[in-house]
Amino acid sequence: MTTATKTKPAFSPDQVSVVFVLGGPGAGKGTQCEKLVKDYSFVHLAAGDLLRAEQNREGSEFGELIKNYIKEGLIVPQEITLALLRNAISENVKNNRHKFLIDGFPRKMDQAISFERDIVECKFILFFDCPEDVMLQRLLERGKTSGRSDDNIESIKKRFKTFKDTSMPVIEYFETKSNVVRIRCDKPVDEVYKDVQAAIRDRL
Ligand code: UP5
Ligand code: MG
C-alpha cells in the first residue's frame, strides 16, 4: 500500500513571521511597507520588485516571459515567483532576519495555497482598500517618472481587471479565515500609516 506524502512547510510561524500586504495597483503597498521597515524590524520583499530584478538579471531564462506578463498585467506563473520568494526568505533567515512583509503576493489562489503549504503560514493580511479612480490618478502621475513598463493607461486597465478577477478572490479567501486587516488608503500617506500602526499593534 502506498501512502501519500504530506509535505511540511519549510518554516513554522514561530521561526518565520510573514505578513502579506495586498491591495490594488497603486493602492500604496510599497509606500506603507517602506514606513513599516523604518519603524519595525521587518524585511520588505515586494514580489513585483523581485520579478523586475529577475527580468533584468543577465542570463535569466525567464526575462522575456516576465517582461511580457508584467506589461500585460498578468500573473507570472507561480513557480517563478515562489522560487524568488523562497530564496529571499532563506537568505534573510541565514542572516537572522525572521520578520517579513511580503508585498503584492499572493495575488492568485494557487500562489496562496502553495506558499502556505510549502514555505510558511502567514500571520495576517494587511489589505489596502482604495477606489480605482484614486489608484488610476496615482499610477498615471507616477508613470510620468517611474519608467515602469506597466504605468501606462493600457497596462493599468489590464492590471485593474486582473486585480478584480484574480486577486480579490484571494482576499475573500483569507477573509473567511478572519485574518484580514482592511485599511482604507484614499487618504494622505501619514493618515493611512496611523491606521496601519493601530491595526497591527495587537497583532505583532
Ligand atoms: N501614493 C501612495 N500612497 C499614497 C497616498 N496615501 N496618498 C497619495 N499618494 C500616494 O504607490 C503608488 C503611487 O501612489 C506612488 O507614486 C506613491 O507615491 C503614491 P505605491 O506605494 O508604489 O503603490 P503600490 O500599491 O505598491 O503600487 P504598485 O504599482 O507597486 O502595485 P502593483 O501591485 O500593480 O505592482 P507590483 O509591483 O506588485 O506588481 C507588478 C506586476 O508584477 C503585476 O501586475 C504582475 O504582472 C507581476 N506580479 C506577478 O506576476 N506575481 C506576483 O506575485 C506579483 C507581481
Ligand atoms: Mg509596489
Automatic annotation (TrEMBL):
Signal sequence extent: none
GO CC annotations, alphabetized: cytoplasm; nucleus
Region NMPbind, residue ranges: 46-76
One Pfam family this sequence matches: ADK
Keywords of the record: ATP-binding, Cytoplasm, Kinase, Nucleotide-binding, Nucleus, Pyrimidine biosynthesis, Transferase
Binding site for ATP: 26-31, 142, 187
Binding site for a ribonucleoside 5'-phosphate: 52, 74-76, 104-107, 111, 148, 159
Catalytic reactions on record: UMP + ATP = UDP + ADP
Compartment list: Cytoplasm; Nucleus
Bound cofactor: record note: Binds 1 Mg(2+) ion per monomer.
Main localization of the protein described in the UniProt heading: cytoplasm
Keyword Nucleotide-binding: yes
Enzyme Commission code: 2.7.4.14
Region spans: LID: 141-151
InterPro entries, per the entry: Adenylat/UMP-CMP_kin, Adenylat_kinase_CS, P-loop_NTPase, UMP_CMP_kinase
GO BP field: 'de novo' pyrimidine nucleobase biosynthetic process; nucleoside monophosphate metabolic process; pyrimidine nucleotide biosynthetic process
Cross-referenced CDD domains: ADK
Cofactor(s) needed: Mg(2+)
Family: Belongs to the adenylate kinase family. UMP-CMP kinase subfamily.
The protein's role, per its UniProt record: Catalyzes the phosphorylation of pyrimidine nucleoside monophosphates at the expense of ATP. Plays an important role in de novo pyrimidine nucleotide biosynthesis. Has preference for UMP and dUMP as phosphate acceptors, but can also use CMP, dCMP and AMP.
Domain remark text: Consists of three domains, a large central CORE domain and two small peripheral domains, NMPbind and LID, which undergo movements during catalysis. The LID domain closes over the site of phosphoryl transfer upon ATP binding. Assembling and dissambling the active center during each catalytic cycle provides an effective means to prevent ATP hydrolysis.
Complex formation: Monomer.
Protein name: Uridylate kinase
Taxonomic lineage: Eukaryota, Fungi, Dikarya, Ascomycota, Saccharomycotina
Gene name in the database record: SUVC11G1900
